[in-house]
Amino acid sequence: MEPRWRSHIRALSGRCGALFVAIVIAAPILGSLLLCGAAVTAAAQDREAFLAGRSINCPGCNLAGANLDRRDLTGADLSGADLRGATFSRTNLRGVNLAGANLADAPFKRRDLTGANLSGANLEGATLHRAILRGANLSGANLSGANLNVAVLTSANLQRAKLVQALLFQVEAGGADFSGADLSAALMGSARLIVAKLDAADLTFADLFEARLTNASLRGAKLTDANLYAATLLRADLSGVTGERTNLTRASMRTANLAGAVLRGADFFQADLVEADLSRADFGFSRLSAAKLFNANQTDTKFEGAIMPDNTVHP
């Protein structure tokens, strides 16, 4: 018969083993909780220091409704911050990092955001009237319904940005990159887009009345129901653009490249297409009344049902 003391030792060993296993299982959980608590404490300290003016950095902070008037935030890191309802009167924002920040309805009128990083930021409904965004990174940003009238976007990066129904009247965007951007129903009258890139951009229902697109690239862009009345497209690259009912009345398109373009039902009334490349383009059922086609390359161009410059209907 086993001595009683040995059975006690065996039972105690079993309990200790179970306790050890429990500690091993619980340790990572406890560690995670401690790290989470430390992160929350650090974030709170960062926010307190930022609001007190002791720091200009507060990435990921909740700054909704914060008063940031007259602050110098040059080069500050506010990436991922919630800045809804914050105020920025006379705030210096040159080079600020606002990547992924929530800036819905932000009041940036006349603010200087030169070189700022706003990639992936939510700027829906923001006011950027006359704002300076020269060289800013707005790639993938949501600017739907934003007011960018008379803003400066020279050399800015707006690749894949969402600008649905945005206001871009008289915007200065020379050299800006709108490749893959959604500009559907955007109001861009008299916009200066010289040497700008709009490759594969969606310009459905966009209004580009008298816009200046000299040497601009719109390869593969969507132009259905777009208004380009009296637009300047000298030497512009529109190869492979697609669209129906595009309005190009009185557009200046000398030496423009429309090779492979499909613009059926388009209006080219009095358009200047002198020396333009129209090879392999499809202008079926379009109106080309009084259009200038002198020396235009019409190799394999389709004019089925189109009204030609002399007002005859192409068979």
Brief description of this entry?
This protein is mostly helical and 315 residues long. It has one helix at 4-51; strands at residues 242-244, 262-264.
Beta-strand content estimate: under 5%
Poorly predicted sequence stretches spanning 5 or more consecutive residues: 19-24
Annotation, overall tally of beta strands: 2
Radius of gyration: 30 Å
Helix content: 10-25%
Kindly name the structural category: mainly alpha
Number of helices: 1
Distance between the termini: 113 Å
Q: What profile does the largest beta sheet have?
A: 2 strands, parallel
Please state how the strands of the largest beta sheet are arranged side by side.
1-2
Pattern of helices and strands: HEE
The dominant shape is: elongated
| Average predicted confidence as pLDDT | 91
Could you characterize what this model shows?
- It is a single chain.
- This protein has 315 residues and is mainly alpha-helical.
- It has a domain of 55 residues.
- The protein has 1 helix and 2 strands, in the order H-E-E.
- The chain has a two-stranded parallel sheet with strand order 1-2.
